[in-house]
Amino acid sequence: MLLIYSIMKIKIQLFGPLTEICNGHQIETELVADTHTLLEVLKKRYPALKKSVFAIAVNNQLRKENTLLQEDDTVSLLPPFSGG
Amino acid sequence: MLLIYSIMKIKIQLFGPLTEICNGHQIETELVADTHTLLEVLKKRYPALKKSVFAIAVNNQLRKENTLLQEDDTVSLLPPFSGG
Amino acid sequence: MEKQIKNIFIEGAITPDFIAKSICAHQSKTGIGAHQIFLGQVRADLIQDKAVKAIEYTAHTEMALSAMHEIREAIFSQHKLTCMHVYHSLGKVAAGEICLFVFVSAPHRNAATKACAELVERIKFELPIWGKEIFEDNTHQWKINN
Amino acid sequence: MEKQIKNIFIEGAITPDFIAKSICAHQSKTGIGAHQIFLGQVRADLIQDKAVKAIEYTAHTEMALSAMHEIREAIFSQHKLTCMHVYHSLGKVAAGEICLFVFVSAPHRNAATKACAELVERIKFELPIWGKEIFEDNTHQWKINN
């Protein structure tokens, strides 16, 4: 018998120095309840994140408060901007 | 018998709208004592000058005070600047 | 007031020729009296004896374009402008090359000058763009805006 | 700090190509991080139903160049700049064409931006240059700077 699990996931986009800390521009995790929980998961997986400064966007909207997450959400971790 | 008069003169350079009032870019007058006297002479010759606003330079140096004139001095009448 | 989201990104350096063409395209707009242009050029900064040879730019393009759109609307509503163009490089730009071109035109100079300065400031601090400073020996550090 | 009196006058309009060449000439100066450029363009102002078709510029060139020299020295001493170039047209410049090109480069943008704005202000009010606004029917009026 074959069991197919459909694990609910979220995408995490990384930018600037965070691409080095997390070894890539995009990673995935299992869906967690909210952005606070997600950050705990990520900091466990990538301890260097604890020392990083970044803003968080969910589906391209900046979120300063803890934000509930849904299946297939995209979370962006945005270190300080340095364009120009 | 031929008498040769050497009349001492000064040159007056005109700019912007003053070229129309005085009909030209350069005129000459007999040497007068100072810039105040010169202005009186010029205003008699070109009455429209009385209504004109301009700064005065003697030999390319701006002169706000009454200034003594010498033979061959060049006096410039400078209406308000409008470059750019 | 422009409502459509415009692209601002250019792959690689912004050339003087591109700038000349932009200026030229404004000569038919005879209501313009003043253009203010800001150009960001990559500096060969010396950091611990190593010179920066290039900056490699990446961006969250979708968020950057929508932030730029808001900035554009705000600045158009605050100043009497004729037009406003912003171009930023993505990818590698060598030292001495141009990575940012901000071009503001207005009937009178004060509006153009103020709007241009505000734009540059907001572009540097509000657009999700990152610069990676690459040294001659191919090591790098991440650029920090002050 | 440049000590030599430089010419700033160009016969007729300043072309986008000339501006591009000036920008290009600065790409070897890799200490520059910011260029601020101001361009004055002749507006086709409508005055009592007649449009300005050109401005004809004249100057007391000798006094203008020596005033410009002093302004240049003063601004170099006040701001940390890499270089500074000023070009002003003489003769006729048609509506839509460029009559003033001010180009300031510096390691950092604040110096370039402030110096450029100061320069434009001083050029307009301190250089003995006059503009004659020529209308479509060849009548004219003398330009007034505000």
Percent of residues in helices of chain A: 10-25%
Report on the biggest sheet of chain C: 8 strands, mixed
Q: What oligomeric state do these chains adopt? A: heterotetramer
Cα separation of the termini of chain C: 31 Å
Q: Sketch the topology of chain A as an H/E string, one letter per element.
A: EHEHEEE
CATH superfamily of chain C: Molybdopterin biosynthesis MoaE subunit
Q: Could you name the ranges of chain A where pLDDT drops below 50 across 5 or more consecutive residues?
A: none
Overall morphology of chain A:
globular
**How many domains make up the 3D coordinates of chain A?**
1
Distance from N terminus to C terminus of chain A (CA atoms, Å) equals: 58 Å
H and E order of chain C? EHEEEHEEHEE
Structural class category of chain C: alpha+beta
- CATH superfamily of chain A, called what? Beta-grasp domain
Description:
The complex is a heterotetramer, with two copies of chain A (84 residues) and two copies of chain C (146 residues). Chain A has 84 residues and is an alpha+beta fold. Chain A has a single domain, classed as Ubiquitin-like (UB roll), CATH 3.10.20. Helix content of chain A is 18%, strand content 26%. In chain A, strands 2-1-5-3-4 form a five-stranded mixed sheet, with no helix packed on it. Chain C is α+β, with helices and mostly antiparallel strands and 146 residues long. Chain C has a single domain, classed as Alpha-Beta Complex (Aldehyde Oxidoreductase, domain 3), CATH 3.90.1170. Chain C has three helices and eight strands. The radius of gyration of chain C is 16 Å and the shape is globular. Chains C and D meet through helix 1, strand 2 and helix 3 of C and helix 1, strand 2 and helix 3 of D.
Summarize the structure.
Chain A is of the alpha+beta class. In chain A, 18% of the residues lie in helices and 26% in strands. Chain C has one domain (9-142): Aldehyde Oxidoreductase, domain 3, CATH 3.90.1170.
